[in-house]
Amino acid sequence: MRRFTTIAITTAASTLFVASMTHASDTVVAMLPGRLALDQSQLPPDAELEKRGAKIGRIDVRIDDVFEGDKTSLSAPYRVVNGLHIATHDATVRQQLLFQSGEPFHRRVLDETARLLRDQRYLNEASVTVVRYNEDNTVDVEVRVHDVWTLSPGFSFGRKGGENNTRLKFADSNFLGLGKQVAMERTSDVDRTAWRLTYVDPHLFGSWWTLSTAYSSMSDGTEKALGLSRPFYALDSRWSANIGASDVDSAISRYSLGKRIERFEMGERLFEVGGGISSGLHDGWTTRYLGGFRYDERSFTTRLNEPNVALPDDRTVAYPWVGIEMLEDNYLSTRNLDQIGRTEDVHLGRSARFEAGFASTAFGSTRDAFILSGELAAGVDLDHERYLINSLGWHGRLEGGTVADGVFDANSRFYLRQSEHRVFFASVTASITSNLDPEKQLLLGGDNGLRGYPLRYQAGKTNALVTLEERFYSNWQPLKLVNVGGAVFFDTGRAWGQDQYAAAPSGWLSDVGIGLRLGSARSGLGNVLHIDLAMPLNRSNDIDSLQLLIETKKSF
């Protein structure tokens, strides 16, 4: 009997291995003459402040240490970690603020700033609050953030579908407290062994421009990527721009029943330049007009030890495109949904994005085609702490009256809060394809939702997956490092349609299991560590009766 077992060991709190020292400190600015604070017990409501035309006064930034407390209340190990940790610089926080002193006060802008800060991996929590109202009709604001340990050496080992995978990684998502990301890692899995170097500067020279670079040396090729972009960083942003290119040579594998059946080489050259304009936020909506040019060249060759593989035709798709994006300003801040013991910002508004382009031989394409893609999403608050979030996405090429490489994805997630420490979660996902490019497969298995089965187990033209979970959240924080939770789950899914390279789908597959969840409270390495035991309910003799999975994910 073949056994399919998944084991991964992730270092989530490597907090004692760096010899650098600095301390977070509050930003203290002296009160200017004539700016007398009124009785703060009568601080006007936000709506009243906006009605009065209040302006932003002093902005104080407070950066909390990794471990809260003073030298008398913290034990020695925690004081050592705080001392070794390089705190986020005051300027790193300030360059992400969406408001400045002298500008009109708007609670919406303060809330959006807090969401923007909470989205940074090197911060655990963030809040932006009015702390003082002055007689000159200004308000003083405190921006408070909580640092986490971001220097993360780590090692992981795993086994999925009878294949081992390992990762050795040294990364810092807040290099020298500047908010920059550097990483060096070595990975080995079923597809390849690789060394990878990455560097990301999300605020180049203190601006909203992002510089990203990556280089990989792989057992089956290389990867080089470079990008420069200025995103729509806020709902009221007026323009964006981006330019990027990548060059990747790697092996592509085809799978059947969790086993690799053949490989071939693919070279991929990508280039894109684009941008957008917007008139900003109006009546709770922002609309953005987009456009650009994309170039996607793919070439295919056989490997020396597999000369008889059926190769796709070389293909180039180059096209100008235009698009529109609409986003509703409707966010909910809550806790204990997809994270444990941290503030989460859930978008409950509606959003839409549509793109259309035309690939032509005049632009270097190997074929003429209309390129269509889009996304729709909508969140609904059903009252009594019940939330439903739906999304649709599609992309494909219209060539000669047929849809090529067409994919339609649908997802629905439902949350029902039963108590402060218990949530019922359900999700349904489905994908429908049409004439996928030959280097692609629609796969379903233990690596994308069917936790009781091998990775990439079923292949087809359509698939669906249903997940039901009872989630448990606790206030227990062992050694002040992790937030502890758990789950009981049921998964069921299947594929339909014959993949020309794989075995026919074998019908519905289901599993049940229990899991431990460890939410990262002090580290920027990963958000939630999953430790799951899953039992397949429809198994053949080559599948183990109990699967152990341990892996780090971004959510519960």
Please characterize this protein's 3D structure.
The protein is mainly β. The protein folds into two domains: 40-64 and 86-147, Ubiquitin-like (UB roll), CATH 3.10.20; 151-553, membrane protein fhac: a member of the omp85/tpsb transporter family (Porin, Beta Barrel). The protein has four helices and 27 strands. It has helices spanning 46-52, 76-84, 90-94, 107-118, and strands at 55-64, 123-133, 138-147, 151-160, 163-175, 180-188, 193-201, 210-218, 221-230, 239-256, 259-282, 285-301, 315-328, 331-335, 343-347, 350-359, 369-381, 386-399, 402-419, 422-434, 442-444, 458-460, 462-473, 482-496, 509-520, 528-536, 547-553. The strands form four sheets. It has a 20-stranded antiparallel beta sheet, with no helix packed on it. Strand 7 (193-201) and strand 8 form a beta hairpin. The model is unreliable at 1-34 (pLDDT under 50).
SSE diagram, text form:
Elements: H1 46-52, E1 55-64, H2 76-84, H3 90-94, H4 107-118, E2 123-133, E3 138-147, E4 151-160, E5 163-175, E6 180-188, E7 193-201, E8 210-218, E9 221-230, E10 239-256, E11 259-282, E12 285-301, E13 315-328, E14 331-335, E15 343-347, E16 350-359, E17 369-381, E18 386-399, E19 402-419, E20 422-434, E21 442-444, E22 458-460, E23 462-473, E24 482-496, E25 509-520, E26 528-536, E27 547-553
Parallel strand pairs: 1-3
Antiparallel strand pairs: 2-3, 4-5, 5-6, 6-7, 7-8, 8-9, 9-10, 10-11, 11-12, 12-13, 13-16, 14-15, 16-17, 17-18, 18-19, 19-20, 20-23, 21-22, 23-24, 24-25, 25-26, 26-27
Q: In a nutshell, what does this entry contain?
A:
InterPro entries: Bac_surfAg_D15 (IPR000184). This protein is mainly β and 556 residues long.
